[in-house]
Here is the input.
Amino acid sequence: MKRIVAREEYCVGCRLCEIHCLVQHSKSKKIIKAFREERDSVLPRLRVEESGCVSFALQCRHCEQASCIEACMTGAMHRAPETGAVLCDTDRCVGCWMCIMVCPLGAIRRGPDSHVASKCDLCIGEDYPVCVANCPNEAIALREEDEVNA
Amino acid sequence: MNEKDRKDGFQPRQWLVEPDFVVERDPEKCIQCQVCVRQCANDVHRYDEDDETVSSDSSPCVGCHRCASLCPTGAISIKRSELDFRPHGNWTAAALRNVYKQAETGGILLAGMGNDQGLPVYWDRLLLNASQVTNPSIDPLREPMETLTHLGRKPDRLRLLERDGGVALATRIEPQLELQVPVMFSAMSYGSISYHASMALARAASEAGTYANTGEGGLHRDIRPFGDNMIVQVASGRFGVDSEYLNSAAAVEIKIGQGAKPGIGGHLPGEKVDGAVSETRMIPEGTDALSPAPHHDIYSIEDLRQLIYSIKEATLYEKPVSVKIAAVHNVAAIASGCVRAGADIVAIDGCRGGTGAAPTMIRNNVGIPIEFALAAVDSRLREEGIRNQASVIAAGGFRCSADVVKAIALGADAVYLGTVALVAMGCHMCQKCYTGKCNWGIATQDPYLTRRLNPDMATRRLVNLLRAWKLEIKEMMGGMGINAIESLRGNREHLRGVGLTDRELRILDVKAAGE
Amino acid sequence: MHREPYVIIGNSVAAMGAVEGIRSVDADRPITIISNESHHTYSRPLISYLLGRKVGDDDMLYRPPDFYDKNNIRAWLGVEVIGVDPRAGTLETADGRTIGFENLLIATGGKPIVPPDVEGAEAPGVFAFTTWDDARRIQEYIEERQVESAVVVGGGLIGLKSMEGLVQLGIRTTIVELADRILGATFDDTASAMARRRLEQSGVTVLCGNTVTSVEGTEEGLKGVVLRDESRIECSLVIFAIGVRPSVDVVRGTDIEVDRGILVDERMRTSADGIYAAGDVAQADLLLGDGKLPIPVFPNAARQGRIAGVNMAGGEARWRGGIAMNAVEVLGLPTVSVGLTSPGDDQCEILSELNEEEEQYRKIVLRDDRVVGAIFIGDIDRAGIITGLVRERIDVSEFKDLLLTKEFGLLSLPREYRKHIVSGRGIVV
Here is the structure.
């Protein structure tokens, strides 16, 4: 399976990934509309951490042994069998926040207006996650699992 | 303003200096995402937290397009300042602006990149030949087309021996650089450009089968593994030079002059000399790296010969030694002297060549165009019967593969690419390299900015450029019915001049179109 | 005698963890699940949401309906196991069957503590609250009797969640807690007070330092309860939620070692060959400190189940030690608590930040420069990073000052740890 990796030495801190992630998960999927009209109802599913000149984009790593799946009391957090992505079934999530408690990356957050966990879904239906496709410096890359630690 | 104010650190506003550009923000498109704010090292864009709006102050804008390139909605456009002066043939806007700057600062005007004065580009007045009817052209996609180039001293004659029924070469062949494509990356020092940019040039040279040049910045230890594709420079400051340095590269280049600033030295400000730069240049951290105008041990061709042979001794005669000179008025005689001093390669840098920093007056007014310099040098070396003793590299403002083909036809063995390589890595020619605030992460050591150049991407772009040029060079050669770059070299029959005076044509030794 | 390769007593989170653990090693051999409840595997914590009608019956399933089929599971539901014979490798069910096993997992969970010395505790209208059936019975009772007020005995997590369900149904609720504050086991004084305030704002009465001594009921139903201080509260429903204890009955009379729970080693093996225990019934190693204790929290049960499953199937997985942790919303107020949250000794360093206006509180407990506990209230988004530090035993001395800052994130962590999780394969914690 493919995995998103962050190359913090090349992150330029522009936050285009956050912007495009927000648009991708908005209702309209149109950038100007998403920012003008849906700003309060949609959050990016990743966050850019920044400290001095160092920054990187952080989103769910879809861990092999995902703590969030294990800790999910409803079974909402699950692994998609086809892609291996860790996804939250928002119909089943009740917002108990166990996943937030156990995610060592802090990559899950409370959804903006719905009472469900919000996390990276690897942009289902797109060829590439929008954060990867829109990083101007290729600081977010999608790599095959065996390349990740190479 | 009196001296006391100066000591207090009072910085008077430069009222006379007006913005070069106008930054326009389309309010219909701007989503206040602040990408522009985060990306501008010149603080053009600001975010007001109270109003939650982004606004722009055009005055520090250098026109590098970083913000416009990254703006996700295309809300930003950058235009030349429309603030027009009353037209004047002598007192152009540029001339006035320079005076205003100097009146406000009292300093030497500085500039980055090459001469921007619109000097004639003679490549544009030279046209290439193509085969028709009587001599067939060659399709490079179907037939072999050789772009392999060897740089270095060629023997005067070959002596062959019959041995064991076969033939063996008895002549010692001097060390040669082998290029898969007749272009190399010219000298750009680590310090003037970033670590990532240096690394990308080295990696791209290695991937494309050509060479990159350290400039006088020394050879960073991470780049040493690419030594087989590196030329190391020995310049007047002798930064980073030791025996290991000389021996870790494929060739050594003595830098006498540079096309963008002939006759003067260099100055890397101490702020750019961080830990790694200091280590690589072998100078204390934070000190200014001053390259003297001349080499203090070279005052004659004989002195040059001493340095050439010292380097040859130090490298066991295993590496070609190049001498790089700026194209100046009597360049042909100087080049001849360099060859006679023992140079295996002579690199000639024309007045359109780039630089990280040069006094504007020097950049704009000193030297001669590479086209004339190259023609004169090639002709002179032929006349003297020493053309085989050294390869000639042309440099200074090469923009495209056609320029390269014309240069080779005019007599060059290969071409150095500097500016165009930076452009391929993302340079937008704002010409502010000397400020150290390169928004594209190329000509800077600022850790906030250097990370903007991902060396993987930069390498890929450089390799792409060389690949594309190689294809085009083959295409043009094929059109002329030539299947090896060797057959094009100095083949001025394949050039015709347009819009040139008789005298210019004579110096270029090129026929006029129609002849 | 035929022996089933895998038998699991229990059908909840540890059992499902075990199924997944077994299937990660052994894709084929059948698994037998025996549960005294008659439901398909369901999410136990959801019963309070069910009670409050936040979810319906269809949402209760912890795994999809075809989970048993897909995993080659034979589920005997509504069947009670009455005894295990470790020597013979057999177990007996209440309906008279004897089953042989190669590997047995005891994942019987916990059972509610029956209040001692409460008069009238068997009256109709008095309930425990740990199973789907409990929730269903309470619901039916509420509808039947038009319940308008209730008393919840116990101010712990189960008490609070049942209270929440009742409040969502519009029932006036009183919580009676024996200790001097609610959520005493997982919260410190400050956090308890914040939770209490949230409850009171929602109309819940909270009585601490008190308990129910008798329940007054008649044929028509409950009338009320009498407290220790002899005061009386009128109500028509009482839920006892004073805690659970490991449900170890199934191994009574065997020589399987039992303390408070069934003692297990790091591979979840009991003292008897081929017999494992996991989840709330098990007493396993602690992450912080020596010794073993049952820690009945959801993530531990899931992890223990998986580890047991892997080992049962011949693989190898080890338990690194458990730690109490809970994420719970108290009437809309998100909270997370991990580990030691209010240390009694003074060997701990406390970092904390309280913003009462915004209902935000963050507290981190350090011992020997390592995080041993934390409370997050209100702003919980990055609590997991702290949990990670606890589990990985990271020395935080270098960045202690940053832990409670707004900017705190992975970037504040040591580069090696950070690289490992940011560019690595993701980690197991």
